[in-house]
Amino acid sequence: MKTQIRKIELANRYLNDKYHLNARQKFVEEIGKTPLRTDIINFLLGQFTSPTVYLEIGVRNPNDNFNKISSQEKYSVDPGYENAENSVDFKVTSDEFFEMLKNGTALNDSIKFDVIFIDGSHFAEQVEKDIQNSLNYLKEDGFIVMHDCNPPTEFHASENYDYNLSPASTLWNGTTWKAFVKNRKRDDIYSCCIDTDWGIGIISKKMNFGSSNKIENNFFEYHTFEKYRQESLNLISFDTFKSFFIC
Ligand SMILES: C[S@@+](CC[C@H](N)C(=O)[O-])C[C@H]1O[C@@H](n2cnc3c(N)ncnc32)[C@H](O)[C@@H]1O
């Protein structure tokens, strides 16, 4: 009985903890944000005057995003870790897909994409590879779009996909932010992050969205990221983002 009461006391302490409550609040705020990734991808595809080619890395349920994308040509890649049905074009990992592109066993080796949506593995090391491979197959005026670049709390940015007993519950952004923030250090590409839908990272070879990331965070500490979130991500609203397209 005593142990039971102690357990209930501990559970209540967790539920009323200020740090956890604050995290829940940020979580709720993030969920309410619009537009969604789909709207942003369709906005970008709508900027091209010629027929577009779209690639999505990591699809899960195509009805959530892929099927809503308006592009003359579109391709999907997913090994099917989270969806047994997995009705994608290429049932392989992103690494395997890019290898197939390189050796000419998928599509054709001269194909370039207008928009590539990176939303596969959410671990920084793999995301970093996905960014580099995508840059190699992106048209000069194309865009890389990345989901989950702006985790609202460190609970969402956990390295543990399976642990749900936190204020993040089952919603998880992983460590994608680290790969995005690292690539924002580069001066040969431009990038920004739209403050909606868990952070929509945008990378362009051509369109200048502002300066690269000057924040020193060599060990990718979450608390430093939190403190300098704005500059680390070049975090902007969708309205500001759209203003880059007004001639
Ligand atoms: C978050 S879901 C994608 C959601 C979808 N893009 C959307 O907007 O609704 C992540 C997907 O990435 C896939 N995935 C995981 N590792 C991958 C990898 N190395 N290459 C490609 N896809 C991967 C998983 O199987 C899962 O279906």
Describe this structure in words.
With 247 residues, the protein is an alpha/beta fold. It has a single domain (33-243), classed as Rossmann fold (3-Layer(aba) Sandwich). Helix content is 34%, strand content 15%. The protein is built from nine helices and seven strands; from the N terminus they run αααββαβαβαββααβα. The chain has helices at residues 2-16, 18-31, 37-45, 94-102, 124-136, 176-183, 222-227, 229-233, 238-243; strands spanning 53-57, 73-77, 113-118, 138-146, 190-194, 200-204, 235-236. A seven-stranded mixed β-sheet has the order 2-1-3-4-6-5-7, sandwiched between helices. The radius of gyration is 19 Å and the shape is globular. The chain starts with a helix and ends with a helix. 37% of the residues are buried. It binds S-adenosylmethionine (SAM). Residues 37, 56-60, 64-65, 77-83, 93-94, 119-121, 126 line the site of S-adenosylmethionine. S-adenosylmethionine binds at residues 37, 56-60, 64-65, 77-83, 93-94, 119-121, 126. It comes from Chryseobacterium luteum. Pfam families: Methyltransf_24. InterPro entries: SAM-dependent_MTases_sf. This is Class I SAM-dependent methyltransferase.
